[in-house]
Design brief:
Mean pLDDT: 84
Helix content: 10-25%
Number of strands: 8
Largest sheet: 4 strands, antiparallel
Strand content: 35-45%
Oligomer: single chain
Length: about 130
């Protein structure tokens, strides 16, 4: 009886390991800045995760740089997103592992489509998905 239980458990474990839980390895996460106000630009800080870089999508231009000294342990990036036409700020986050924890995102500053600073920084939501 015990032998059947062990064999049954082994079969269930084998099936569970064979199931695909989604994409693994390097790839690009789609991200969008959501706000109640039209934004011309935003500066964000990304900390942690397996981020390797950023890319613009649609009309969004992206400028990014790793903060020196943070690359090894807990990578931190400063990212500037610019929308020349005031459209939605959509961008890609390149990561070395799509299954890893997502980075923590902090809004540093934002500007209107007329390039005027928004003080205080409006409530922004960063939507990140596979």
């Amino acid at each position: 009886m015990r032998r059947r239980a062990v064999l049954g458990l082994a079969a269930v474990m084998a099936l569970a390991t064979a199931c695909d839980s989604g994409p693994k390895g390097p790839g690009t996460l789609a991200a969008t800045v959501l706000s109640d106000q039209a934004l011309g630009a935003v500066v964000l800080m990304f900390t942690g995760g397996t981020v390797t870089g950023f890319e613009g999508q649609g009309s969004t231009q992206v400028y990014s740089s790793a903060i020196p000294g943070t690359e090894a342990a807990d990578p931190t990036f400063r990212v500037i997103l610019v929308s020349p036409d005031g459209g939605m700020l959509r961008f890609g986050i390149r990561v070395s592992d799509l299954d890893a924890a997502r980075p923590v995102v902090t809004a540093i500053t934002a500007a209107t489509t007329a390039n005027l600073p928004l003080e205080p920084v409006p409530a922004l939501r960063i939507k990140i998905e596979h």
